[in-house]
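Design a sequence for this backbone.
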């Protein structure tokens, strides 16, 4: 293998089908259910892959932690020919669930269109290799297929991230793909028809709504499932704990995992700032302008671990945590600094000895 070709273990972020390859193989091997055409396992096994369980003596780790019913509804949608749209606040695992569903159903989560204001119709349908087009005219070799076209040909799943950020022409291009299940290529006088198993999983962020409201025609072609923020403190702590451990091990961070106490504290702070109320509902607090989602809690803690591993004793200290909290909560805004200061003085300071160390470190950071 040449030096420029990375081996899989050096890949920075492994896709779900690689990361959980052994779990997927066990599920396929032990599958007792009926496998829909084009799928690699039954809907029941897909569910087990997402919410966790056992397959022939092998533990399947939960990927999505939360309401299993929502996951069942998502899978059931993909069994029919309807497309799936996952919506919700930032950091509620929309992309994560979409990646893991594609990995379980189709074995490849990499056919992705990333929606931005600059996404073009060609990125949804097809484009051309212009050098070849000029030299030979339109030929099948010169055709550059979009991830969606490739999923159609293979009977697989294409992912469309942040669909509501796209301009309406681009969204319209999807309507015909979803209702006709074909893309015609008039230049070649042919049509690409979707094979059974083809579907699209799109995600959209509720904070972006209004930028480009999705047309009703497009919405009608999707089953929408709203992914909520974690229901309670325990669930959120569990999610954060699990993901931090996974991410830290993939980065090979030489630091101890955050203590349960540190996890509880970070998640408590996040939930209180997010809801504008202390957990005992006795006191109102102000919310910072930025998003403070579960995903932020996860990256804050992995950052603090990296700090501890690289410049500390390998054990996460209150100072490491305070640095992470400061970065997550105060985003280039003086107002946030004030919000954080008020929270520190009105809430954290009064929480007694167990919080004293963190309070002092945060106070110092927020000067
Ligand atoms: N309920 C949950 N179960 C498991 N992991 C979760 C859950 N909620 C959040 N996470 C974790 O949070 C991280 C961020 O999730 P993800 O990027 O999928 O969010 P998103 O909803 O796509 O956000 P955005 O709208 O910003 O794109 C992932 O590492 C994911 O594992
Ligand atoms: Mg996302």
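Sequence:
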């Amino acid at each position: 293998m040449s030096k420029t070709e990375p081996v899989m273990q050096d890949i920075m972020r492994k896709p779900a089908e690689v990361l959980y390859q052994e779990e997927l193989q066990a599920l396929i091997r032990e599958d007792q259910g009926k496998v829909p055409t084009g799928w690699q396992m039954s809907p029941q096994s897909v569910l087990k892959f997402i919410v966790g369980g056992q397959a022939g003596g092998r533990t399947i780790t939960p990927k999505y932690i939360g309401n299993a019913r929502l996951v069942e509804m998502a899978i059931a949608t993909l069994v029919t020919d309807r497309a799936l749209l996952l919506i919700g606040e930032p950091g509620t695992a929309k992309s994560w669930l979409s990646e893991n569903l594609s990995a379980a159903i189709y074995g490849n989560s990499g056919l992705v269109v990333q929606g931005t204001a600059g996404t073009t119709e060609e990125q949804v349908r097809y484009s051309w290799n212009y050098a070849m087009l000029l030299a030979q005219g339109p030929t099948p070799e010169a055709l550059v297929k979009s991830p969606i076209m490739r999923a159609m040909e293979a009977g697989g799943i294409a992912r469309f991230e942040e669909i509501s950020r796209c301009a309406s022409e681009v969204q319209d291009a999807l309507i015909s793909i979803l209702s006709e299940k074909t893309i015609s290529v008039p230049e070649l006088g042919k049509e690409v028809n979707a094979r059974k198993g083809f579907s699209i999983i799109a995600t959209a962020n509720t904070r972006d709504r209004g930028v480009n409201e999705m047309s009703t025609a497009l919405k009608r072609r999707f089953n929408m499932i709203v992914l909520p923020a974690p229901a309670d403190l325990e669930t959120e702590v569990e999610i954060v704990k699990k993901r931090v451990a996974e991410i830290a091990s993939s980065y090979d961070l030489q630091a101890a995992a955050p203590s349960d106490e540190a996890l509880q504290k970070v998640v408590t702070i996040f939930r209180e700032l997010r809801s504008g109320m202390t957990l005992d509902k006795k006191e109102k607090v102000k919310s910072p302008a930025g998003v403070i989602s579960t995903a932020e809690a996860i990256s804050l803690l992995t950052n603090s671990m990296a700090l501890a591993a690289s410049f500390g004793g390998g054990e996460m200290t209150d100072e490491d945590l305070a640095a992470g909290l400061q970065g997550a909560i105060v985003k280039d805004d003086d107002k946030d600094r004030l919000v954080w200061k008020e929270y520190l003085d009105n809430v954290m300071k009064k929480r007694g000895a167990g919080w004293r160390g963190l309070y002092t470190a945060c106070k110092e950071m927020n000067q």
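The mean pLDDT is 92.
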